[in-house]
Structure prediction request, 91 residues.
Amino acid sequence: MPITRPLYAFVFQSLHIRSAEEIADEFRKREESSYLKLIVQEIIGELNHPTQRVKDMYRTRHSESELREFLGRFVAELDRGPNETRSKASK
Prediction:
């Protein structure tokens, strides 16, 4: 299930809280654009029309709302693109 991949990176891959921007950048480097589109579609669908508790995917200290907020930021970062994110942050 594509929705679990960015969540895994957020919840488990680091001791510090990783930003949606960092994780989106990693996905852009590793994944094909067609797969990124699938991830975005799945996440947007889940955020707009919830079908499950995202928190049930992993045992985590994060709340349901924190996980959904992260997913929303992750999708926004993927949509923004790598150059837009950095240029806006540097202004």
Q: What stands out?
A: The two ends are 37 Å apart (CA to CA). The longest helix spans residues 64-80. The chain has one domain: 4-82. The chain is about 65% helix and 0% strand.
